[in-house]
Structure formats: structure tokens, C-alpha cells
Write a structure and sequence with these properties.
With 304 residues, the protein is an alpha/beta fold. The chain has a domain of 182 residues: Collagenase (Catalytic Domain), CATH 3.40.390. It is 33% helix and 13% strand. Strands 1, 2, 3, 4, 7 and 8 form a six-stranded mixed sheet that branches. The longest helix has 49 residues. It is globular, with a radius of gyration of 50 Å.
């Protein structure tokens, strides 16, 4: 019996072909992966090159990324922007305080025409209680208007101060212009005019033949220009500024107009009462221009 030849197995015939195809597929995939890696690397390099180019165009530099979170003081090259506030060493030094004035330099007219320039306008009411007393302010006509302005301002500042006569709550005071109803007038007068005015009330203002002091007549407070400009020896030699003397003489003479009489120094080293005749000397007391000290009326022994 013929035996038919054994059939060739398909698997045997296809094996080499399939193996070849598998190897070819693997090779193709490997090559594709290589191409992708190269493309990715090229892309990264291209991106880096673009960033460097942009920075170069901007002219900037990259800030170094710190490798530690520990803060450190910046180097000189990396110091922060200067603060808008100047350092203490760069701050301007304060301007020196003005030198105190003890006397006003310049010629002082010895006499005048006896006629007056009056301050204009109306001042505020000074004080919170008591009878209102209205007053005018005037300077002799040969005294400059600028000095009248200073005189007027000084009177209002003095009488409106809480250490002045308004502290007693007996009086309120108000400056009024000429032509208004008033109770008294405060005059700034040359020495000779002061002498003549005060002599009508029986007072002699002279010392060594020169009109020296101020005075008060009913309804008239007369401030001697000589004292207004030159103060007095105890103040000048004691380095007590001219403003303090001017404050004193205003409060002293207005005090007379308000019914106050002279008082004496209560003891060496103590403040002088404002009604002490400080123009003739402090007599061991310390200069004091105010009738109220530490909120209380300050007085000395009455002078008979």
C-alpha cells in the first residue's frame, strides 16, 4: 500500500518568514524611539536657545535660585534699592534757635506830636466769663505802622493768655477800633509824650532827667517807647528776653486799669508779683510777667 508522503507542515514553512518580520518590526520600533528621543532633545535645545536669546535681547540677567531656604544678607552687588526715607546720618541738622532779644537796636525818637494812629479791626473776645471791657490800641504818629502792628499783636496775645487777667473770670477783654464804644485805650508813646501824659495825673516818669517808666491814668494805659524798646537793667543783665518784659509791662499797667495796686517782692528767689514795680528792679525776686501762676492768683505784700 502506497503510503502518501507526509504533508509539509505550514507552521514549518512560515516560521522563518514570521521570525524575519518580527525582527524587522522591532528594528523599526527601535529606530522610531531613537528618532523621537533625538527630536525631543533637539526641541529642548531649541527652547533653551530661544530663552537665552530673549534674555540677551532684554539685556537682563537671571536671578540666582537659592540652594537653601536660609536667608542671608545681600552682598554689596545685590543690595536692595535705597529707602525713600533718608538715613539719620543724611537727615539735615535742625536749624539753630534764634538768639534771644534783650533790646531793640536803633534810634528811638525822644518825643512826638502827641497824636495817634489807631489799630484797625476788632479782636476776639478774650476770656470766658465776667464783665466785658473793650479797649483801643494806638501808637504815636511818628512811630512806624509796623511797630503798631507788633504792639497790637503783643497786647492781644498777652491779655488772651490763660495766665493773664482773664484767668480770674472777672473780666473778658476785647479790642475794638477807634470810633467804637470802649472802656480804655492802650498807648505806645515816646518818652516825652509819656512824661507829659502821666504828669497830668501827678506822676513823674523821669529817671536821671529822661522819661523812664510807663503809667496808667483813668481810661489810659501809657507804655513808654523807651522801655518797650530797651527793657530794664535787671532783665537785660539777667538775660531775660525782651518779650517777657513787654508781657510784664502790659499786664502790670492793665492790672492798674482793672483796679490792682502795687505789691512787693515776697522773698528772695521767689517769683516777682506782676504788680511789683519790676521796672525799678526785681529786689531779689525772679522775673515773672503773669498775674496767675500754676492756675492761682499770685500776689505779694501790698505796698502802702
Amino acid at each position: 500500500m502506497r503510503t502518501a508522503p507526509a504533508p509539509t507542515r505550514r507552521a514549518d514553512r512560515d516560521a522563518p518568514v514570521r521570525s524575519s518580520r518580527v525582527e524587522s518590526g522591532r528594528l523599526a520600533r527601535a529606530r522610531a524611539r531613537q528618532r523621537r528621543r533625538r527630536a525631543a532633545a533637539a526641541f529642548v535645545l531649541l527652547g533653551a536657545a530661544l530663552l537665552v536669546g530673549i534674555d540677551l535681547l532684554r539685556g537682563g540677567t537671571h536671578e540666582t535660585v537659592p540652594t537653601s531656604h536660609t536667608a542671608s544678607a545681600p552682598s554689596v552687588a545685590e543690595s536692595a534699592e535705597p529707602s525713600a526715607e533718608p538715613s539719620p546720618s543724611a537727615a539735615p541738622s535742625p536749624s539753630p534757635s534764634p538768639e534771644p532779644v534783650y533790646q531793640v537796636a536803633g534810634d528811638i525818637p525822644a518825643s512826638g506830636p502827641g497824636t495817634w494812629t489807631y489799630a484797625t479791626g476788632k479782636g476776639d473776645v478774650l476770656g470766658t466769663a465776667g464783665t466785658t471791657k473793650r479797649f483801643r490800641v494806638a501808637a504815636e504818629k511818628n512811630i512806624a505802622d509796623e511797630e503798631l502792628d507788633v504792639f497790637t499783636e503783643m497786647i492781644e496775645q498777652t491779655l488772651g493768655d490763660p495766665r493773664s487777667w482773664i484767668a480770674g473770670r472777672q473780666y473778658r477783654l476785647q479790642r475794638v477800633p477807634n470810633g467804637s464804644s470802649y472802656n480804655f485805650t492802650v498807648y505806645l508813646a515816646t518818652g516825652e509824650t509819656t512824661r507829659r501824659m502821666c504828669a497830668t495825673g501827678g506822676m513823674d516818669t523821669r529817671m536821671d532827667g529822661v522819661s523812664y517808666t510807663s503809667c496808667r491814668l483813668p481810661g489810659r494805659v501809657v507804655i513808654n517807647l523807651n522801655r518797650w524798646r530797651l527793657s530794664v537793667p535787671d532783665y537785660v543783665n539777667g538775660k531775660i528776653d525782651l518779650t517777657t518784659y513787654r508781657t510784664y509791662v502790659i499786664n502790670h499797667e492793665v492790672g492798674h486799669e482793672l483796679g490792682r495796686n502795687h505789691e512787693a517782692c515776697p522773698g528772695k528767689g521767689k517769683p516777682a508779683p506782676v504788680m511789683q514795680q519790676q521796672t525799678y528792679g526785681l529786689k531779689g525776686c525772679k522775673a515773672n510777667p503773669w498775674p496767675y501762676v500754676d492756675g492761682k492768683r499770685y500776689t505779694g505784700p501790698p505796698v502802702a
